[in-house]
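To assess whether the prediction recovers the assembly geometry, we first specified each molecular entity separately, as shown.
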Amino acid sequence: MEMKFSGEFAVSPPPAEVFDLLSDPQKFAPLLPTFSSLEMIDANTAQVKVSVGIGKIRGTATTQLTLTKKVAPSHAAYVGTGKVMGGVYSMISSYDLEPRGSGTLVKWQGEVQLVGKILSLAGGGMRGYAEQEINAVINSLRQAMSPEYQQELAARKKAQAEQKSGWFSGLMRKLHKSEGSAAAPAVDEEAANAAYTAALTAGWSGGDLTPEDITPVLTPLRSLARVNDFPDIVKRQASDKWVHAPLSRKEDSRLVRGQGLFVDDYKVDGMVHMALVRSPYAHARIVRIDTSKAESLPGVLCTLTGSEIAKVCNPFMQIGPGEAQNIRDFPLAVEKAIHQGEPVVAVVAENPRLATDAAQLVEVEYEALPVAVDWQSALEDKCVLHPGMGTNHHWHGVFEFGEVDKAFAEAAHVVKIGQMDFHRFASTPLETNAVVATWQPFGGVDFFCNNSFPAIAVQMIAPALGLSIDQIRCKTHDIGGSFGNKIGTYPYMTLAAMASKKLGGRPVKWIETRNENMLAGGHGSERVYLDTEVALDKDGLITAVRSRHIDDCGAYPRYEPLGCVIWSQVLPAVYKTRNFRIDFNQVVTNKGPAAPNRGYSRLQQLWFMERIIDICAHELNIPGDEMRLRNYIREFPYTTPNGCVYDSGNYPLMLEKAKALIDWDGWKKKQAAARAEGRWLGIGIGTTLDSGTNNFGQARIVNPYLPFSGNSEVATIKLDLDGGVVVMLGSTPSGQGHETTTAQVVADELGIRPDMIEVRTGFDTTFNSHGGHSGSYASQFAVTGLSAVHGACQKLKKELKMLAAFALEASEDDLEFGIGQQGPELRVKGTDRSINYWALSAMVNINTAGQPPELADVTLNIRHVYRPPFQIPDVEKKMGNLTLTYAAQLHIAVVEVDRQTYVPKILAYSAVDDCGNVINPKIVAGQVHGATIHGIGAALMESFIYDKEGNLLTASFTDYTPITIMNTPDLAFGEIETPSPFSYNGAKGMGEGGGAPLHTMSAAIQDALFAQNVIIRNSFNSPGDLYETVKRADRQTAVKVESRAS
Amino acid sequence: MPNAAQLVTIEVTVNGEKYRRQVEPRMLLVEFIREELDLTGTHIGCDTSYCGACTVQLNGSPVKSCTLLAVQADGGEILTVEGLEKDGQLHPLQKSFSEHHGLQCGYCTPGMLMSAHALLEQNPQADRKAIRKALAGNVCRCTGYQNILKAVEAVVNETKGGQ
Amino acid sequence: MYPAPFRYHRPASLKEAILMLSALGETAKPLAGGQTLIPVLKLRLDEPTDIVDIGRLPDLRFARKENDWIQIGALSSHGWIAKSDIASAIPIVRDCAGGIADAQVRSLGTIGGSVSAAHPNCDWPALLHVLDAEVVCSGPNGDRQVPVDQFISDAYTTTLATDELVTSLRFKAPAAGSGGAYITYKKAAAAFPVCSVGIQLTLGAGNLCQDLRIIMGGAGPTPRRALEAERELRGREINPQLWARAADAAIAVAEPDSDTRGDTAYKRQLLRGLILKVADVAMLRCANTKIEGSHIYA
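The predicted structure of the complete assembly is given in tokenized form:
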């Protein structure tokens, strides 16, 4: 934040005297009201410490002040840099003196630049407080130069001191007497007072501990307390078929008891804690780092700096093509920091409080550099973030399909829409990023973490640390939400590993603070849409779209530029349009790095298409529902212009259902009545797609040299020594209930109950149940995860049948699976001959003699890799089947924008979901609810707002305001099921939700305000923004419609 | 420079059990519960008193244990999520949250349960509006709050039905 | 996030607390409910050397009526006040006390702490200004009463001396036939208020405005009284047109800061809207209609 101040005041001493004072820090600094110390560094430079703050909230500011110009007795100028709580500042100030009467007129001016997290407090409204502080300084200088004031002040102080001393000693004596203190009569009053004061200021201790108090309480070891209500739940919700049953979750047993194991709950002996020093600047060269004070604090074990790390660590792999490969991304900033909140120094201490204390003692000297905080300034390349790349233009490609120019030439209407903006936000999971890293004696590293795509994480970390992937153990347990954001935690995992290595293998725990999470924990990228032109036929059918898109991925690409192709999975959204030319670009800027975020990259494209259809409907005066019905894709499977295959769907039916749920006709009437009263009431529709199961071959479209394609997921199923059915997954659920749905699937396959199946929690490389694509992302578990589980079951069943056929002397065809007297078993149909799982397991594990050679290959330990049937896309044409399944959502909202306050209020909301065959209706409804409210929050409340210097102004929950129950409407939820022909179970991946509420809220607000000449071109619509938008009323310039006479 | 070595002795009753411990005065109640007593059900979500993941009951009232020094709770009675289950029986709220799928990742759940528990202790007949108001200081990023409301309402209705 | 180390003091009496604050000087801070101070400590925006825990001091939690004066003890928590008889008798107090932050913060946060913190957007300073309240400060030389608008001299700044504590707040009970309302607009319960408006209105026969006070929160560094707007209405028969004129006059003196929640122009508009909404409720309450107050969240 940049602030300019100026003013003047008159004082009674003559100019020479005033100049003498003002040009010498040694003279004037002590006059400041909050002065604490001064140290002259050289003749012209002083280090001044003063207390600064707002009202009673005060901290110390250290300023290095240099006199740069001195023209006696009329002019002097200073430059200064300094640190205040939560920020750093630089200033230029000067003054000019003129004689006025016998005294002097002082004209002063100053410029202050303030950066740092302090600006994010109070919603960025810091200017007023800064003004207050400067006024206080000026006032005190003025008063200091006034002899009359000085005299008066001295007299007042003296009087106060006298009064206080008398009162103080008297009262203290009284107090001590009243407490029955045995203090001897005050012989020497001063000594007595000193003793009283010492007693009064000694602090409260609360007494001693007895030995019993200190005896540690044995808390039950969590790993042994295997709480499990699942058998009760299963019993209560008995069912013949478990898939599709609304079963309550197995996971809940531990979670409702507070017995989950999240990373911060994980404690091991000798564990130490890491805290990070982060750059307050969006872009700055690191001039000097001094960690000595931090290191000398007792309890501090070590520090790590970027230059130290760069010597022992390789930069992380880059996905981008060409020069993007030269980006050097390390866990700590090396040479320069390129976004506010970039880690600069790591500090490790015995406990987290000490680590925080020590981090505060690290001194870093920065030299501020110019910033590029938006796409325009990034594209100018005046300030280049990554010298190796030489530009901020990280990726460019043209996606052209069909005959675009022809379609425009033949169009009945061409609608041109001015710049549209999709804003920067994130799902901000309630648990922040976290890891415990333990360097192993044999040279590998163990991670207990909450990364949600560990298969990629280990492939990033191993080369950085110079390890083989086998040397990395990566484990997750309970994860407190991810929504894609936690894919990006690998730099922190690497850093913690190096800290542990430096400390000889002590486990290093790092728990991100919320502020850190907001600054650097992974933002959904923002996108701007320029030069949008839409061709329509006379009926309002959209025939072609051309546009230029610029994605802003923040400072480090990390998972990018995958977002530059992932959007094309849903290129035409749910519409029949065949002709597209999208010029797609990605830039890096001095903002927090992007990470995948619920609906990743597709929701930006879907919002774009939804705005197009909605704006065109309004401009061409076609009712919104009618416009959509005319454009919806209706035949499935449907191949999009870029070769994606939409598996199944029925959008008109969803619309019908959503209308019924919300009482469309009723609201239409109410809307007419409200409009007659002058109220701003709108009804909006959002139709969206949740494409699931990526074909990683699309990565080659952004970089043809990337050696991956297809997709894979792994499940491992075994009969344990006791005959127990144990399943291990490759996914990292963070609330999606994989333990439950897996148990449902296995139960149906084996003809047993879900509670008879143990599904292990979390991901673990030592399960050997993962492939290179394992993790939870891209709405895929119902397809990839459960297909792997299903495949593993088939193989297990085959083995079980072979064993049972031998043991029961029966034909495999005569065997059936089920539950017998002694638990899960196989039996000969229509007889009482059976063998249970314990006995079957024994044949392989315990009781193995006397078996025929045909059984030699039976292991009862099955690992199945599911690989969807993908082809490598055509990289040149940017075409191919990029995703396996397409779940759909259709939302309708009724919104009223209050004419007095501009607060948009949701009066009704319906959400209809289609994810094919539903595995667990409770879980599906829960995912839809969550995605909907997340989206409403993003549309109305949640935005990462940066100022022009790159300070994040919404860097705490208090300022970012994640949506709460007070902002949440009641949802009317419905579903249809169009089974996917491409998954074994007819299911489609779901959960991300495709950002439907963003489209819907934009559409509803558009409908409410169209009569005010407003075109909604921003995905974020807070009351303040709506006020601006209505005031601007720029429909005439925002949209141009060219219609051809037919 | 403040005295980092000052330790204060506090005594609190947590889930019916008395604990006496020496702590740094700056130790937050949430740290005390999680680190000193190893009751890790109470979570930290936001650090700035917004999200309520750290909600516990202190002398019956819901409080955010991240915005309270342990020494402030000295002499107090604290109830955490671990104290809801009695004699191996889950509290009706815990059952109802599971039954109505009022939790997904489970990170906010302990705080939600404690806020709801405090509400129902004071107002067993709470209506939807009162439930919303009581949970206004608890953030959930997964459920969209729909099923949390349902879960609490179901317990209210059960109580009503039982009368 | 963790506060920096400090020394902890637990005075047994108000007197001892004042002595301690006096002896410890500027770098000591009193701690009441902690709902403002502890976040500040955790962010390390302030690193006091000493914390004087006044939260346990006896006899400072009360709400009582004596003669015409209502007096509320400084350590009364927002939640406790919301449930007090005083709040049932004076709806505007319930609007405020029951709507501050969330249930958890209301359990601990105190009225005395809130007034001393003097946050420019927070509720108690504005509400107490509506009621023309006085802040009772206790110090070495005994008690003094300061009108709340003089007590709060600037954003986050009060005239409370280092060795003084706020011990109670007092105001005259609104006259019979008087109705008041207080509405805050905030993004969420736990977020800071953006703007708020409180109106206490006394109507005579035929909607004749006998007296009123209109205060805007978040309209400047301290709660701002809309004197000109009050003049538009006082002594007149009130109607919607007059309210609209008053609202325009009120926002002419509002100087809300631009921030991420909206710029100055928007916040003026917001204040205008709030005035009209609060006026509606206050009018209804003058007519003895029971109406639950509700803040606006979005």
